[in-house]
Amino acid sequence: MAVTGWFVALVALGVVPIVATGSAWALVGWLVLVLALGALDVALAASPRLLRIRRELPGPVRLGETTSAELVVVNEGRRTLRGVVRDAWQPSAGAAVTRRALVVRPGRAWRATTTLTPFRRGERRAEEVTVRSIGPLRLAGRQAGHAVPGVVRVLPRFSSRRHLPSRLARLRELDGRTSVMIRGQGTEFDSLREYVRGDDVRSIDWRATARRSDLVVRTWRPERDRRVVIVVDSGRTSAARIDDEPRLDTAFESALLLGALASRAGDHVDLVVVDRRVRGRVQGATGAALLSTMVETMAPIEPELVETDWSTVPALVRSVTTQRSLVVLVTPVDSPGSARSLLAAVPQLSRRHLVVVASVTDPDLAVAAVTRTNRDEVYRAAAAERARLDVARVAAALGQVGADVVSGSPADLPPALADRYLAYKAAGRL
Known about the structure:
Blueprint: E1 2-3, H1 5-12, H2 15-21, H3 24-44, E2 51-56, E3 61-62, E4 67-75, E5 81-89, E6 99-104, E7 109-116, E8 122-134, E9 140-155, H4 164-175, E10 188-194, H5 206-212, E11 216-221, E12 227-233, E13 241-242, E14 245-246, H6 247-264, E15 268-274, E16 278-282, H7 288-298, H8 313-320, E17 326-330, H9 340-350, E18 354-360, H10 363-370, H11 375-400, E19 403-408, H12 413-426
Parallel strand pairs: 3-9, 12-15, 12-17, 17-18, 18-19
Antiparallel strand pairs: 1-9, 2-4, 4-7, 5-6, 5-8, 8-9, 10-11, 13-14, 15-16
Helix pairs in contact: 2-3, 4-6, 4-12, 6-7, 6-12, 10-11
């Protein structure tokens, strides 16, 4: 049984008989009357259990975008149901309205559209729909819950895609599509041309020279069809929020931008998300299917509050490829203690591969380190400076064992990693 505000107001009016008669029996009689009216109202209310409820859910939606889900209520009883329906979506689904008044005649259907603007990535769920049926006197009614599960998958935002056109233009310049082909760099054969003074004599093609009776040299370009293996850390340190965004989401943004750029360059891109176990893997996808597969894989992954086991990563990379590749480890670089496992794994990778460690940094540390107007801020500045020194120490140690370190704020890390990839291409290292 559920009561309304009118029932409470009617009970409160019981003070009138007491004041008028001065007898407590008047209050008892009034309460008996109100309860009888409430029981009658419950008996006359339509049963909320005689409803059939289903959902019509949208497809995947990107984080921050708006979508809508429909709730369809069919009255299979003999009475018109008047009341309230509550659709219990998770708060992070961003449902604009969760309670609505409804009137459903027998055999008819009632529809409600719920606008969703999710503010967290992953699977946003709704489990139950609660219906309260109010009687004709509007004093009381019946209430029942219906298990109507529903899931809306929220994909990564990929706001860093705005950097893709400018990086693709630079990539075309490197490939010679919008400017003259860069000569003498890389390891992939491009064409033959006549020898000019200053050319490297090691580039002379003696067979072509014998056929033409003139010195002919080979030209080269950065090798295509290389492999890029992106390893994303989903351990406990990736759960921290920087600029109101989890580090894991920043890692996904960086991986998506690099994956899109490398795929356009003709390289094979593989993705592995790992902590103590492999949480997600993308392997063998190319072209337009690569990004869609990556975002579908990333969407349901949340950080695990465990230490990442970096000792398994070298074997994991070997299972992906045996040829020399660019291996990108997207993980926070914080303190020497938490990076000990990472520092032990990097030498095994750098002996065979080109290794880059991409780490998101907190821009608030730089601000806190220089703000010292009072005692509390001085202590905060000292802590911030210590944290920055720890990061610098770990970055230096990674450089000594053969890894390049790319760092930046959540907005700066994805383009910085893409720029490092282009720099390797320009230098013929990839």
